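Good morning,

Attaching, inline, the backbone tokens for the sequence recovery test we're adding to the shared suite. The designed sequence is right after.
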């Protein structure tokens, strides 16, 4: 599948991707400034190589631009921090809303890529769809970024809410939400950001 991004593109695809990477690394580092483990050289190198700063969220639903998945992740983080302040949410550590917001869709980074076609930047499939959405994000985060708390893993595992899995998943999700309402706020932040088109 191919979806158009812009009618006129002044720069070649590679240059656009490199420029977006540099801009988004700066934004990322400002956001996680207080958490050195999230901006170590190794983590930044991994995120850069994984196309974290340029990947789109979707073909045409939300975040369908260069860096769309990063923008979506920042918006989810921003909303989680807003809910935390407004609702007095408690997290097992201060960086939890950042880790959940910024990396819950890490699984999308290798699913799509950008190419130049007929003078336009388009989104194309990079790999076959991986149905292990949340599990894949958790695996990638644990392996390459940071070891997570149980609460962080639960929030990411259930972030897709009613779209996240089979009947068993839904039953367990309800039970988990009753014990940990932060899961619900994670789902809300994700849904609100997507509905905003981000
Ligand atoms: Fe997701
Ligand atoms: Fe998301």
């Amino acid at each position: 599948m191919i979806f158009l991004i812009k009618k006129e593109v002044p720069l070649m695809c590679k240059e656009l991707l490199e420029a977006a990477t540099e801009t988004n690394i700066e934004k990322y580092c400002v956001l996680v400034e207080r958490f050195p483990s999230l901006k170590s050289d190794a983590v930044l190198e991994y995120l850069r190589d994984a196309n974290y700063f340029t990947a789109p969220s979707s073909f045409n639903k939300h975040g369908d631009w260069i860096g769309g998945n990063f923008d979506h992740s920042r918006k989810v983080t921003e909303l989680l921090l807003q809910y935390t302040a407004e609702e007095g949410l408690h997290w097992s550590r201060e960086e939890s809303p950042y880790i959940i917001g910024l990396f819950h869709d890490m699984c999308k980074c290798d699913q799509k890529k950008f190419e130049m076609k007929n003078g336009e930047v388009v989104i194309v499939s990079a790999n076959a769809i991986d149905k292990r959405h949340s599990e894949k994000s958790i695996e990638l985060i644990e392996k390459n970024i940071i070891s997570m708390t149980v609460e962080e893993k639960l929030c990411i595992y259930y972030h897709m809410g009613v779209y996240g899995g089979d009947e068993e998943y839904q039953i367990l999700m309800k039970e988990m939400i009753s014990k940990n309402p932060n899961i619900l706020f994670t789902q809300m932040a994700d849904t609100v950001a997507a509905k905003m088109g981000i």
